[in-house]
Amino acid sequence: MMAAVRLLLRTVSSASSCAHSGSGTALLRLSPTCSSRPRAQRRHAAHFAFHPDPVPTKYGPTVKMNLFQSITSALDNTLASDPTAVIFGEDVAFGGVFRCTVGLRDKYGKDRVFNTPLCEQGIVGFGIGVAVAGATAIAEIQFADYIFPAFDQIVNEAAKYRYRSGNLYDCGNLTIRAPWGCVGHGSLYHSQSPEAYFAHCPGLKVVVPRGPVQAKGLLLSCIADENPCIFFEPKILYRAAVEQVPTEPYHLPLSQAEVVQEGSDVTLVAWGTQVHVMREVATMAQEKLGVSCEVIDLQTILPWDIETVCKSVVKTGRLLISHEAPVTGGFAAEISSSIQEQCFLNLEAPIARVCGYDTPFPHIFEPFYIPDKWKCFEAVKRMINY
Prior knowledge:
GO terms for molecular function: branched-chain 2-oxo acid dehydrogenase activity. This protein is of the alpha/beta class. Helices cover 38% and strands 17% of the residues.
């Protein structure tokens, strides 16, 4: 029931800025989604353009998939090859809010793909038990914003299970999936990026893909990994990101960043949706400033690939990190500190962070909160002119 309420709230959230504007007529004139004429509500344009990767050739035949279909394909491959694998969470039996598990219950049965009560703590606690018993547990938290009731189970139980038993027992077969990140109209409870909370916890792996090809390969690697993994899926990319994805199972390495664009003057580091923002920034910097930017997709937040980032910063002398979460205590701070310690003599300018503000995620002002390409481009200009 609560899941349905959440879906309803998401559906009407963009309309509420008009309904509650009151006397703010100037704001109404500025808003592209509000009009005095009755017509269908339109959402704000996305703050990025998706850049598909080249078609992978080494994993066999490919099919055009968006991101949620690539997730479904990874889960389908897992259920087909591992008879112990089970998928559970709120509404996963009918496909979930974002349709990532659609058709799997009909194909594999209600004993392997099933709904749970609306209790995130219970979902993860159950998943720990399933994994400790030797099965493969794939838990879905309906939105990453609602993962916090399960925080104790994840941090104090799942992450420490192997250590506390001296490696006699572990729950490494547990993977927790959750839609993550901003969408431009999700407001307080449907736009958060909580990866930094879990990056402080040894014993976990935290992964965020940038597109369908990475999503399938990284998710399969998380499921196969011997540690509990949290897999955050950029919800704005579920349908916006479309690529040719291999139909057969394949694995992409965890804790390995990818240089998606080489450059010589500035290193741009991001993950998830923000990688595509950085790609646009790199294009703008080249066209407007003649500045060559190297773009790195971190992919795994914990443990992160410091070697790849260091190698790039030694070459470029400048580093810009961007994420959607608030700037204070965000994972960009950890990257900045580590690179400053190891690459201090190579830096030509202070390390820059372009992130969300230290406020809750707003509603009608969400487009102003997002660290878009213009904010990042200004940061590049400041570094070049330092």
